[in-house]
């Protein structure tokens, strides 16, 4: 779980705290993945995450881009066709505190007063949730599995977090993608990628 996906602690009525990943966190991370890969697969992307700049970018490219079409965009009066649920832990989760040193990006030296502490979720904690696709045209559906694949590959080599994911209950997606070149990708996404992660 890298810093790209924020988790939240909430306190329930009986005083126990529950850790979960809000729908908006996961959707945001997946949207960034979609922006990164969209153009390589022939989709249009405004490559913009800052809401105030999206409209400007769309004017430049002459319309709503495919990423915004799928993930929604500010000022739209239509709901996003992708509906995410919160991701809830499938078992007990303890967070660990980790003290880190902040490095100044420009000088690559330790920044002054740079010790900071973050909480993170240790590996092998599993969260589950749903993504619904509502009225997404077939040719655009593939952007979702492509983005999921990018999300779990994207952290390689950066060392700041690792996320794995898999798709379960994908019957409907199977129906859309079977007999296309994408059925293999979907099958891969039904298995963990980081099987040997200790
Ligand atoms: Zn856009």
Please provide a written account of the structure.
By secondary structure, the chain is an alpha+beta fold. The protein has one domain. The protein has seven helices and eight strands, in the order ββαααββββββαααα. The protein has a two-stranded antiparallel sheet with strand order 1-2. The chain has a two-stranded antiparallel ribbon with strand order 3-8. A hairpin with a 5-residue loop joins strand 1 (8-11) and strand 2 (17-20). Helix 1 crosses helix 5 (143-153). The longest helix is centred in the first third of the chain and has 15 residues, at 23-37. The two termini are 15 Å apart.
Helices and strands, in order, run as EEHHHEEEEEEHHHH
DSSP helix fraction: 25-40%
Q: What is the C-alpha radius of gyration, as a whole number of Å?
A: 19 Å
Strand order of the largest sheet: 1-2
Main beta sheet strand tally, sense and closure: 2 strands, antiparallel
Number of structural domains: 1
Shape: globular
Bound molecules: zinc ion
How far apart, in Å, are the first and last alpha carbons? Answer: 15 Å
Q: What is the overall number of helices?
A: 7
Low-confidence residue ranges = 156-160
The helix-and-strand class reads alpha+beta
């Amino acid at each position: 779980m890298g810093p790209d996906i924020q988790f939240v602690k909430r306190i329930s009525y009986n005083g126990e705290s529950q850790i979960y990943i809000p729908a908006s966190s996961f959707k945001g991370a997946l949207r960034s993945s979609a922006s990164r890969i969209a153009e390589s697969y022939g989709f249009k992307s405004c490559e913009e995450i800052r809401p105030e700049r999206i409209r400007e970018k769309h004017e430049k490219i002459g319309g709503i881009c495919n990423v915004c079409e799928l993930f929604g965009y500010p000022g739209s009066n239509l709901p996003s066709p992708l509906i995410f649920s919160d991701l809830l832990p499938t078992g007990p989760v303890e967070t660990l505190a980790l003290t880190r040193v902040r490095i100044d990006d420009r000088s690559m030296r330790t920044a002054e007063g740079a010790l900071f502490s973050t909480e993170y979720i240790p590996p092998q904690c599993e969260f589950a949730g749903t993504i619904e696709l509502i009225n997404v045209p077939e040719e655009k559906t593939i952007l979702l599995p492509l983005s999921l694949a990018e999300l779990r590959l994207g952290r390689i080599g950066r060392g700041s977090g690792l996320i794995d994911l898999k798709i379960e209950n994908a019957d409907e997606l199977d129906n859309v993608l079977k007999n296309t070149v994408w059925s293999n990708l979907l099958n891969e996404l039904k298995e963990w990628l980081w099987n040997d992660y200790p």
